[in-house]
Amino acid sequence: MFHFLSPNFFEGDSLYYLRLAWLYRTRGLLDAQFPWLPYSAIAEFSSSLWYGFGVLLIPFTAFEDPVLGIKVAGVLLTGGALWTYYLVARRMRLRMAPLWPCLLFFSAPNVLAVFLMVRPQVVTLALAPLLFCYLAQPRNVPGETARSDDRGSASATIPIFLISLANTWVHLNFAWIVGFIAAVVVSVRWVVERRVAWRAAGAVAAGMLLGWLLRPNPLGAARLLYIQLVELLFAKWRGIPLLFGNENLPLDSAVFLRNFVPLAVLWAVAGAVLIWRTMSRSGAEELKDPDRRVLLWASFLLSVASLLVAFVVGRRTYSWWSEFGIILIASVYTDVVPSSRRLGARTIETAATWAIVGVLVFVAFDSTTKTSDSFSHSGIPPDRLKTAGRWLEEHSRAGDIVFNVRWFEFSPLFFWNQKSFYVGGLDPIFQYAHDPRLYWKFHHLSGKDSVEFTCGVPVCSDGTREDTHDVLVKDFKARYVVVGKRLNPDLYRFFAGDPRFEQTVDTPREAVFRIRRSRP
Length: 520
Fold this sequence. Notes:
This protein has 23 helices and seven strands. By secondary structure, it is mainly alpha-helical. α19 links the parallel β1 (401-404) and β2 (421-422).
């Protein structure tokens, strides 16, 4: 239902992923060439970080209406992720198992938005808690002890291997979360049981390795992964002002206070109860099952770490904070609260139940309202840049380079027109890694720093400025420009008033200009 609340999408990359799947269907699964971004490391290293996700979307390219195909894919991805979370709650024997996927889905408008995207992140949202479940609780029989570990670990080894493989294959740049979850759970198990879960660690490592290798040109994919993780992180730390996407920026405290407080209160209370009961002698004696202790403490540490990363590095990890935070809340509600023998324990348990249900009711209303507004006011229309893309497809030559002023406009342009090549797209770090000089010339025009002139260094000066027309023609070999009237109004007016640029498409939102090689 939520996917069909509006014809819009939350972000434009859904268009790119479906077109990528179409390429795999029409050109073959082993063709990793991607020439559509000639000034990006993606074309240079000829591989894909999202190979498995593109393969999974191939059936949805059969829809006559590709937009409908994206919507149907979104319904199945969202439903599959929430159903998996429910199965995780069942396998962990958490009380009120059907409630926890609902709380996750509505936990914050930001998290709800992620669930409504057609991106590989949704697959990771399904696989991360599933991997955690098998690592933290390999023995799925109540009452089993650590003495039966060989049998329990063996039965969990194959699922752990397959989940690690699937996550890495579908979304290579999120493969690190697989290793991180394994490292936390294995460490907590060592503290609890004084043993290292070598079999589980080996299954994770083997799955990650095979998931990386099962794609065309895995070495090129490894280089792209290094760029998007390591080089991007270094660029942030050095303060290089790249055109970062919002998900790569740290979580703003105002956004957290506006959208995440109800879940944060439940999470903080659950964490405090866990610490208090562990420090008390009676609480430590009551919780004897090692798997349950691993479950509690590993979910606590993973949720804390995910929230810290969201605030310090990039906000995209808030979804994992919600996932592991809710597992912590559910585990405390299941294992810690009922174990208390203090006077009034039943009253506390009842109060906890009503608090959880009350938060769910509130966030369901709050997240639905805010998400509906976002869909309507800031969503991406399915025909975004369709007029420009179709015109370019009809009038340009194969391989003509289009200077798309904004990097995020690549996905809709590529969706509607695969005949042309484009200057930027998917992530600016790939442009920067390919050629910093060309990136800065693009950056100043895209970021509204420059109009008539641009330059190949972070700060332009009299000695570094170059004429915009000359840069587009000589450096980028561009034959067309696509510019947003609202996003870059000054640049649009410059192109419209310069006879070296001929306007060929004019819509309320954007314009297309043919670049003349000389003045008419």
